[in-house]
Amino acid sequence: MTGFSHVNGASRRIANVPAFGDPFGVFSRDIDRVLGSFLGRGALRPTQAEGDAEATKTLNPRIDVHESDDAIELSAELPGVEQDDVDVSVLEGVLTVKGEKKSTRESNEGARVVERSYGSFTRSFRLPENVDADNISATFKNGVLTLSLPKVVEQKPEPRKISVAGA
User: Fold this and answer.
1) Which residues neighbour 93 within 8 Å (Cβ) at sequence distance 6 or greater?
2) What is residue 29's predicted lDDT score, i.e. its pLDDT?
3) What pLDDT score was predicted for residue 61?
4) Global pTM?
């Protein structure tokens, strides 16, 4: 699909079809929006990333979010990224995943085709109120970062018996 429509011999650009770049970029933004609305108000929502905006456009890791009764699991595909080049942090209710995919070559001199992307990335998510930010854990295996975000156990108040004294 070229992003153009031919009508009566004249070419017109189709407004909702990207003519270049990542054809799934539109879907990625929609999925992020759906995840935020599905998990409810205050749930995992992408926030504006800090840092180099151009680099975050180039490398935008795909993320899956699964929720159970006691935790939320977030999995990020980071192919070609080394574990030491990944940084996960939480500050003021925002979970941030930063990293860098480094090229193994010094230069692209003599390259015929270079399709792989290199550079740094940042993804940030606002945590829901019911996540225990102090007990978040992370594992990295086969290019997949998995974060476990345990939920706070709600304690239901129990009535306290008050003895009534006679006068």
Assistant:
1) 126, 127, 133
2) 58
3) 87
4) 0.59
* DSSP class of 158: P
The Cβ of residue 116 has, within 10 Å, a number of other Cβ atoms equal to: 9
Take residue 116 and report the two structure tokens written for it. 């792989």
Q: How far from chain centre, in Å, is Cα 115?
A: 23
Q: From residue 104, how far is each of 5, 9, 46, 107, 117 by CA, in Å? A: 41, 48, 30, 9, 12
Spatial CA neighbour of 93 closest among 29, 154, 152, 156: 152
For residue range 68-124, list pLDDT tens digits in order.
999 999 999 999 899 999 999 999 999 999 999 888 777 778 777 877 788 899 999
CA dihedral sign of residues 22, 65, 95, 119: negative
- Asked whether 120 and 39 are in contact (CB, 8 A), the reply is no
Strand 71-77 to 63-67 pairing: antiparallel
Q: Which two tokens stand for residue 68?
A: 């159970």
Token representation of residue 118: 């290199």
Q: How far apart are CA 58 and CA 41, in angstroms?
A: 29
